[in-house]
Amino acid sequence: MVAKMKDFTKGSLTGISAKVTDDDFKRLIPKERFTSKEWLQKEYDLLWSRVWQWACREEEIPNNGDYYEYKIGDESIIIVRSETGKLNAFHNVCMHRGVRLVEGEHWWGGRGTLNNFRDMFKGKLRCVYHGWAWDLEGEISHLPGAKDFAPERIQKSEICLRPVRCETWEGFVFINMDMDAEPLLEYLEPGPEKLAKYKISEMRLKHHFTTILPTNWKYGVEQYQEGYHVWATHVMDLNDVGAFATLPGGRRAGAMFGEGKKGPGEAGYPEYGKPTIKETPPDPDAIGAVTVGEQFERHTNFWEPDKDIQTGVPKGVKLCDLKDEKITDPRTWVRTAMENMVMQGRLADYELDYFNGLSDDEIPWDMQGPEFMRKNRRDACTAQGIDISDLEETELYGFPTEFRFFPNMLGPIAGNTYGLFRSRPHGDNPNEAIWDVYFMFRYGEEEPPEVNYETVEWDNYPTDRMPRTFLQDWRITPLYQKGMHSRVLPGCRFNKQEANALHTHLMLDKIIGRDFEEVVED
Known about the structure:
The protein is of the alpha+beta class and 522 residues long. It has a domain at 53-180: Rieske Iron-sulfur Protein (3-layer Sandwich), CATH 2.102.10. The chain has 13 helices and 19 strands.
């Protein structure tokens, strides 16, 4: 007797999983998943109302009585630190007539405190309309004019704040509106085990940037889980916005030099160690195809096996030979690379300071560039009292892992750094997404800096504080979304380098269904 498959379009999502097979690459994923308001509403009803989603960091709610507002669609969730120091979460709505109780300090939500309220409302969740108030366990504590209500309408069980599941992992605070959801740590498997050695709980947030991208939220998740786009978007810079990825400090600085698979005259690819130009580009299969995608039951991972590619300096080049037409001094070249990496959120300020404090005699000029970058990272961390000795050489830079926790938390973690992305739908518009960028670092003896919260324009953001390579990615967003509306486009086709992106849709198949698609039954 064949066991009946669970219907994940109802009930909790406990136990959900998806596996990409060869047959899945034959599908056309309906474009309506990116353009339809009907599909977006189903995502709100069936996905976002039942899935664990990352809301904030614990250090953003440091004191009893502090709170954080997290928004998803029409829903607003309050996460508050109670009088006992515990984190509780509630739907942010007055049970009298629906007024929102608190607001974060930004348009998208964010931090706040109940400790500056006056008189009887200090440390309470209160409604500014009629003065109802609740304690930080969600129980009603002040109800003006109670005698004038019908008794059955003000029963404590009816007017308490509606709870939301709230659990933490490594300092991240997650919420789930489904009170029957499986425990967070079970849902996140195998991520916590795979990322444990990076000691994320010791990291602190430095920057939080937010923008509205002119594209569906799933685009952001998909693009950052595949390397297929890297050759065209970043190395060749086909958008002509600036080949930032191949400049000093860029994620593909090494792509300026040939890989040696094909010598001069063979398909136009340069020999190893010779600079490339658009007329003699690097082999596409030596760029995107070397990245590895992995799919687990619910989550995915994206990583790059080559430990030298993402160090911000070219592979196969000694420090003494790092120079180009604009920067002829190797020390200046390395310093420029590091300065660019600080702006990209890939290098801590103290690593740059450590390098600047080295004398010329202390720099091993005959050392390969990538090897020196790893040495400088280890030495700078040690000087700060930060222990990264558990990390292998392959785990210090680049993409040793870019774990995606379904549905929308992802980003590369390497060494002492974590660059995190989060993509959410923006209201009822399937053509826009709220995109968050977090840059986190481990800090030792020095105090972590004050967090910089900043709303930016996707096409005009501060490049002294954000990676310029984002412009290469984000310039695609309006082109992508507009193209989705074309009457001649039947849907999206994915190749094996894009299996992680396809995995997202297999999960949505189970959670929502296969609307707008002709499904051939076996």
